[in-house]
Amino acid sequence: MDIRNINIHIKPIYDITFKNLFGVEGNELILIHFLNQILGRNKNNEIVDLEYLNVEKVDNIGLITNKKKRGRPSTKVPKYFTKTSKMDIHDNDNNEMNNINIKSVLFYNNFQNFLDLKLDDLLNCFNENVNNLLEKILEIEDITLREDIKEQINNILKKYKTNNNEYFNIENNETTKEINRFKNYMADLFKPEENDSVINMEATTKDDERINIEIQINEDREMYKRTLFYASKIIHPSLLFGNKYKKIPKVVMINILNFNLLNNTKEEMTIPHWEFTLKDKNTNEEKGFKDLLNIHFIELPKYKEYAVKHRNKMIDNYSWILFLNDPNDEYFKRDDIPEVFINAREQLFLLQADPDFIELYEQREKEIMDEKSKMEGKYDEGLIKGRKEGEKIGELKYLMKSLKKGEKLKEIKDDYKEIFTEEELEIINSFVEDKSYKIKDLALQLDLDEDIILEVCEKVNLDVQERKEKKRKIKIKYF
Known about the structure:
- The protein has helices spanning 15-22, 28-38, 94-114, 119-138, 143-159, 173-190, 223-235, 266-269, 300-309, 311-317, 319-325, 339-352, 355-405, 409-412, 422-433, 439-446, 450-459, and strands spanning 47-52, 56-58, 61-63, 198-205, 210-218, 250-257, 273-276, 293-299.
- By secondary structure, the protein is of the alpha/beta class.
- A six-stranded mixed beta sheet has the order 1-4-5-6-8-7, with helices on both faces. A two-stranded antiparallel ribbon has the order 2-3.
- A hairpin with a 4-residue loop joins β4 and β5 (210-218).
- Mean pLDDT is 73; it is low at 55-103, 116-120, 161-171, 189-195 and 471-479.
């Protein structure tokens, strides 16, 4: 069977598909090829290896398991990423989950204090102290889970022993790796469910540089703050357990968006890939912040338009973007297609042939479509509201102008009843007649912005000085 002759029916841009394609152990080469192209890395600084930081290993396949109410996950797990987190200890709301995250930091701090004790002393009180701590922090009754964490901590503690078996050795490399694994384990244990669309990894370049990279696939419009939040989640844990600032990793955040985030100007509409760094406003230089934090926004809809006009450039430079937008493009069915794309299509074919995955995929697709419908509904509501507000402002201007000329409200009010209520018409009439009537009060009563009322008043030549809210003078006493 030639995979090039088969059509793919699932969309790679959906988070559940993307994560099963790029975020599964065994598919590292696909992800490495993807990253090198997306980040524009050449042979001199290309990524050559990576390690996933948020997957489990079961039969060499990365998994996120099915959700249970409390405690250990089910042993019967599908071989793909689901919409749930690895271990669902608590089935509570977001506020409670945030409290749990705070408690996990408390756990780390307490554990760090334990490391200052002698090993023998620590191990003697280990069971009592750690079990009590776990009871307070995890708030679970699952003994298996508690023993699992305790065993991990024990392994770390044993590796802190020095040659004389007396004190801990903080600089032990093996111990550091063990701690990092434990931190990842704990971070995943307490993570909110919303980062299911995230792939986190540590990449190694050709010159042995290590970079933390995180990819997000979502429809979230609050991408700026969200990105900073996730970047901080990478940086902060690197300082736990006494690490120095020099050990803060270089961080690359890649946000792949199925909507246009930056589209306020014609120029913005022509730029599909944005890269933000920390720079000085005056010199436009990164200085000491160079490469410490790089944030990418890749807007797929703009690339669709780009592909129509510049197909050859799209194939040469952005073939992975072309793949995300359409894995059935004729380019991916050619005889000379790079093998990495054949492998990627094979992975998608296997996913779409899995009935369990398709069930989750269709559920996710429905969620996305419902959310889009909701957003479109809000957009339509906004257009209607804006149109009504525009009509209201226009009619207000004509009404005020007529009243200012001396026309009586009772003679002209029928012309404005479709826009204003009887009470609102009386309020507007009082405002025109009474110079002490404040703009602020009229704006509140008509549900309009003060600046709009002020602009209308100025256009119809109504005196506004007395109608403005007077600023309070503050007397300052000098001692």
